[in-house]
Amino acid sequence: MRHFVAVAEELHFGRAARRLHMAQPPLSQSIRRLELDLGVDLFDRSRRGVELTAAGKVFLTEARRTLAQADLTRKLTQREAMQVPEIRVSFVGAALYRILPDMIARYRTTRPDVHIRLFERSSVDQIAGLKAGDFDIGFVTVAGAGGLDFCETLVVERTRSVAAIPADWPVAQQSSITPIELSELPFIAPPQRYAQSSALYTAFSNAGVMPHVTQETMQTNTAISLVSAGLGVSMVPATASLMQPRNVRFMPISGLEPEPASELTMMWHPQQVGARGEEFVAFTRQFLAEKPHLLDPDAPL
């Protein structure tokens, strides 16, 4: 199947053989044996090149699914055989502003025997990683994620959204900023295909203006770095102010309805999270019960 997928994606036996680090004749023989076993032709071979047959297109979809499941099975099996128990936690940068460091520190006091491996990834990359079994727990911003129907989720933090402005810009001397003023400044935002349904664009649309996006980034930390460099303004979680970045002023936004808020969501695949992951979920629920201010966007930081 791996040989078939390589040829199907390259549509060229020579390139597929190089990709698989093998000679072309054994690859051709492997594909021919597969076709004989199935009793169908998977490829149309001609002087013009190689193309998938209708049966080959169906087999490609199923082969990819089968190989993904095989890889997942290998990962889960190896994980269970590890002598040192671990939880693999992926997160967006915004999770580091307040909640995640406290959670990890608290968890380690209760389970010092469990090793926590951390991976900073975009929300989109975390979705793929959770599906593939690369991560046990993910912390995502739902607006940048999408495709959460396969997993269970828990909102772990709510905070107001604020404007991040270069501190050396004249507008940063104001006590607040309006949507109209923001729309006249170069704006740093997530790619529109991820953010167009988010609170960002909804709030601006309700105000009758739209931001003038000049830079795009999926990561809040990157957006703040670009603001620090004077390349534009952005809308970020108010918790970002706890990091005290250089040359960045965080300002409330007046006149936006609904008032923009930011949510951080924990997610996990119920069939793949494992016993230690389930334990971490239970710990998180208790952690939130003890800290209700984390879910109150108007609570002091």
UniProtKB/TrEMBL annotation:
Entry's Pfam families?
HTH_1, LysR_substrate
Q: Which SUPFAM superfamilies match?
A: Periplasmic binding protein-like II (SSF53850), Winged helix' DNA-binding domain (SSF46785)
Boundaries of every HTH lysR-type domain copy: 1-53
Ordered alphabetically, the record's keywords are:
DNA-binding, Transcription, Transcription regulation
InterPro entries linked: LysR_HTH_N, LysR_subst-bd, WH-like_DNA-bd_sf, WH_DNA-bd_sf
Q: Which Gene3D superfamilies match?
A: Periplasmic binding protein-like II, Winged helix-like DNA-binding domain superfamily/Winged helix DNA-binding domain
In terms of PROSITE patterns, this protein maps to: HTH_LYSR
**Into which family does the record put it?**
Belongs to the LysR transcriptional regulatory family.
UniProt-recorded name of the protein: LysR substrate-binding domain-containing protein
